[in-house]
Amino acid sequence: MMVMGRGDHVTDLDAHPFGTYQPTSVQAVLIALGRRLPPTWAGKRTASFIRSALRRLRSDPLDLEVIGQKMRLYAGNNACEKRLIVTPQFFDPLELSFLKARLHPTFVFLDIGSNVGAYSIFVALNAGAGARVVAIDPNAIVLRRLQFNAAVNGLSNIQTVQAAIAGMDGEMEFALEESNMGGSSLQLSRDARGGKTIFKVPVKTLNSVVAEAGIEHVDAVKIDVEGFEDQVLIPYLNAVPRSLYPRSVILEANIDSWDSDLLGALTKAGYRTSDNLAQNGIFVLPD
After folding, report:
1. Where does residue 179 rank: exposed (0-12), middle (13-18), buried (19+ CB within 10 A)?
2. CA-CA distance, 102 to 219, in Å (whole number)?
3. Burial class of residue 210 (count of CB atoms within 10 Å of its CB; 0-12, 13-18, 19+)
4. Which of 33, 46, 146, 182 could cross-link to 117 by cystine, CB 3.0-4.6 Å?
5. Nearest 5°: phi and psi at 154?
6. What whole-number distance in Å separates Cα of residue 272 and Cα of residue 93?
7. 167 three-class SS
8. Residue 238 and residue 262: Cα distance in Å, rounded?
C-alpha cells in the first residue's frame, strides 16, 4: 500500500510541473466547445467527435482543472480521461453531488476501480485533510496518474493499493484493454483476449484491504470494476461486522455480468435504493 505525499513524481512526464502541458489554441477551442454541450444525443455525439479530434492533434497529456481539481489527463487510451477533458459536466454529476452532501471531516471513502482518481481526489479535497481515501486499482499506469494528480492537489490523505478486489487473496489474470485502460478487468480475461494484454495481478479481498488500512468505519464505497462488482461486495458483506458496512454504495450496474445476486444481497443487508441512474446505482444503509 502506498501513501501519497506532496511532491511524489512517478514518471518522466510527471516530473514536469503541473501547467507544463497547456492546450494549444485549437485544443482550447475544442475543449471549450465540449464543456458547453448539453447532455443530449446530439451533444454526446459532438463530444465523441471532439474527443477523437483531440486524440489526433497531440499525444502529450493536458494539464487542466476539472470538477474542482487539478488533473494531468491523457486523451489517448482511457475513456474516463477523455470524458474529463471534454465534458466534465457529464462526469457522474448526480453521484458526486450525492457524495458531497454527505462529506464530513473524518469521512472514509473506498474507491474500487479508482482509475486516475477523479472520485478519490474529489472526496479528499472536499472532505478535508482529516478524511481518508483508499484508491484501489490493479492497473499500475492509471494508479501512477492518480498519484500525480493527488500530489498536484496537495493531498496526503489518499492511499493507493495496486490490486484487484475479489473473493479471495492471491493472484489472477488481468486483461488490459489497450484502447481503454479504464475498461480493463478480471472479467475480460475470462473469455476475450484479442486486443488485450493479459498478465497476473495481486488480488485481495476488500476486508483484507480494510483490515490492513486499520479502517474502523466506511462512509462510502464506489465500485467500478467492469462486471466484478458482485465479487467485490458480497464476500465483504459476509465477512465483516455490520459496523464495517459502508453507509453508502455507488456501483456500476453490470447486472448481466454478475455471477451472484448483488442487488438481493444489498437488500438482505438492509440497504435501500437511493437512486438508480443510467449506469450506476446508489444504495444507502439507514441509521
Report:
1. exposed
2. 9
3. buried
4. 146
5. 70, 30
6. 21
7. coil
8. 12
Note whether 221 and 248 are within 8 A (CB): yes
Q: How far is CA 39 from CA 92, 114, 198, 267, in A?
A: 12, 24, 35, 32
Q: Which helix (H) or strand (E) holds 220?
A: strand 220-223
pTM of the model: 0.88
Distance CA(114)–CA(98), nearest Å, equals 18
- 274-284 burial, b at 16+ Cβ within 10 Å, e below that, comes to eeebeebbbbb
Residue 7 has a pLDDT of 33
pLDDT over 60 at 190, yes or no: no
- Cell numbers for 167, please give them: 473473493
- Joined together, the cell numbers standing for residue 161 give 493499493
Q: Judge whether 85 and 75 are in contact, CB under 8 Å.
A: yes
Task: Please determine, for residue 257, whether its predicted confidence score (pLDDT) is greater than 90.
Answer: no
Asked if the model's pLDDT at residue 188 lies above 80, the reply is: no
Q: Tell the CATH topology of 93-284.
A: Rossmann fold (3.40.50)
Q: How far is CA 235 from each of CA 89, 121, 246, rounded to the nearest angstrom?
A: 34, 27, 13
What pLDDT sits at residue 147?
Answer: 96
pLDDT (average), residues 37-53: 94
Of these ranges, 125-139, 163-177, 254-268, the one predicted with the greatest mean pLDDT is: 125-139
The conformation of residue 169, written as its DSSP 8-state character, comes to: S
Q: Where are the domains of the chain?
A: 10-89, 93-284
Average pLDDT of the chain is: 87
Q: What pLDDT was estimated at residue 195?
A: 53
Cα separation, 277 vs 37, whole angstroms: 20
3-state SS track over 135-177 = EECCCHHHHHHHHHHHHHCCCCCEEEECCEECCCCEEEEEEEE
| pLDDT recorded at residue 186 | 56
Whole-angstrom distance, CA of residue 110 vs CA of residue 218: 8
